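Worked example 2:
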Amino acid sequence: MGGDEPMAYWSGTLATRLLDVTRDPSALDSTGYWVTAVSFEGEVICARFRDVRRVPAVKCSRRPWHGPRPEDWSTSLRKDEYVAAVARIRERIAAGDIYQANLCRLLSAPIAPDSDIMALADLLRRHNPAPFAGTIRLPAHGVEVTTASPELFVRRRGRTVTSMPIKGTGQTEADLLEKDQAENVMIVDLVRNDLGQVCTPGSIQVPDLCTVQQHPGLVHLVSSVDGELAPDAGWPQLLRATFPPGSVTGTPKKKSLELIEELERGPRGLYCGAIGWVDADRRHGELAVGIRTFFINRPEGLLRFGTGAGITWGSDPLREWEETELKARRLLAIASRPDIERRAPQGVADSAGL
């Protein structure tokens, strides 16, 4: 399955033979199997495929992955700039403007013109399995993205919708602080409010709060929020009410988005957006938060990857910087080392212009 033909792989399902591409999310309420990618800035693309089959052990690319050299990564915010931005967020919290904001930086590195996102996806599945991993390759439409996301943005099964926000990260459970729990609870309240805009009154529940989950190289605090979608609401209304994901924006969401635009340098793109699949015939779909996500900017010849941290009044600026390093280190190592089979993935984030 080489070449540049459109395809997608998600949750053990391989989709080939592209039928339709649209930027209208109402297509997700029509028929057929769709994959979708929504940038953090709200640009939507939905693609419907004809051939869809279960192939859990598939290798999607015949090409080897030739990733960038570890020393070629650059960052949109250097360490001193990131620490200063954390201080600025804490000032805004002290002033009462916001309670929490997610501060991110985008890493970029040049790659060869024939680099295949599916080959990188093959590596990620072997070396960093994730519950919401998936890949979309639509080169003619500017979407080449693979994610090892641990976070469910929204799942829809019939009228039941679920979101599982992640806030709180450490190398081990012992690293998690009271600040992490407080941050998680704040974002759960935000997600409850978002879903409440499109769910029937009284249906919002929180079955799990601040559960510790183990992932490769780190641990997260994860909660879940459920609701029943109102009869007059579909995918467009659900996305409009909940996007961008609360865990990668902040609270209040509008004020946090304004501060993110002020402090971050340039758009996030597919990083922190939503990426996933929808089986419109079965009224079932899952969209992941676009974290632990690589995407190719083909015109600029760059591979991109984002990393960030949630900032509260209790944040230590240097600790937040180290959290962004922790989240990036393992994934960058996999993407940057073609001999990953023989070498331990460590230390690459530290070479990203820092």
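The chain has a mean pLDDT of 92. Residues 195 and 245 are 11 Å apart (CA to CA).
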